[in-house]
Each structure stands twice: as C-alpha cells, then as structure tokens.
Amino acid sequence: MRITCPYCGERDRREFYYRGAAVDLDRPAPDADEAAWDDFVYQRENPAGPTRELWYHEGGCGAWIVVTRNTMTHEMIDVQLASEAQE
C-alpha cells in the first residue's frame, strides 16, 4: 500500500504509523465502570468501504495526516494534513 504524504510525496505505508480512526470518540469519565471502558477500548466499528484514518509519517517528515481510503480495496481516496482536515 502506498500513501501520498502532502510534503514528501508517495511513500510505502511502512514509513507511516497507523493511529486509528479519525473520528471523535466519546471517552468515558475517569471513574466510569469497567463495562464502559471495555466498550471504549474494544467495541469499535469496523466498516467495509470508505473510512477516515489518522496516520503519522514516522519514517519521514513527521506529519500527521488524515487518510480516506476504502478498506475493501485499499484505494486511497484522499490525504490531508490533520491540521487542515474537516470532520
């Protein structure tokens, strides 16, 4: 899989570190019960198709980027700097 960094151009995905879905997650309160924390950590959506993901260009310029890609085909639909990405 190849990811196009806005600064460095197209690179192998091994230069990047996947940080998870680029969505707002409702974090439980620090004193929430075990079930709430279990849901937060383990019960995430796993959609097939276009998703937004947060990646860090660890082996390059250090940019944080939001990648929109199709999880079924790995097609890169869009790449933006995280600081410029819209929800």
Short descriptors:
10% helix; 38% strand; two-stranded antiparallel ribbon; Folate-binding fold; elongated; 6 strands; mainly beta; 87 residues; single chain; 4-stranded antiparallel β-sheet; 1 helix
What does this structure look like?
The chain is built from 1 helix and 6 strands; from the N terminus they run βββαβββ. The chain is mainly beta and 87 residues long. The protein has a 4-stranded antiparallel sheet with strand order 3-4-5-6, with no helix packed on it. A two-stranded antiparallel ribbon has the order 1-2. The longest helix is centred in the middle third of the chain and has 9 residues. The radius of gyration is 15 Å and the shape is elongated. The two termini are 24 Å apart.
Q: Please give the number of β-strands.
A: 6
Shape: elongated
Approximately how much beta-strand content do the residues carry? 35-45%
Could you list the spans in which at least 5 consecutive residues all have pLDDT below 50? Answer: none
Structural class based on helices, strands and sheet pairing: mainly beta
Give the strand order, joined by hyphens, for the main sheet: 3-4-5-6
CATH architecture: 2-Layer Sandwich
Mean pLDDT: 91
What is CATH's topology name? Folate-binding fold
- Tally of contiguous helical segments: 1
At the first level of CATH, the class is: Alpha Beta
What is the ordering of alpha helices and beta strands?
Answer: EEEHEEE
Secondary structure: helix percent: 10-25%
Radius of gyration: 15 Å
This entry's quaternary arrangement is single chain
Largest sheet: 4 strands, antiparallel
CATH homologous superfamily heading: Folate-binding superfamily
Q: Termini separation (Å)?
A: 24 Å
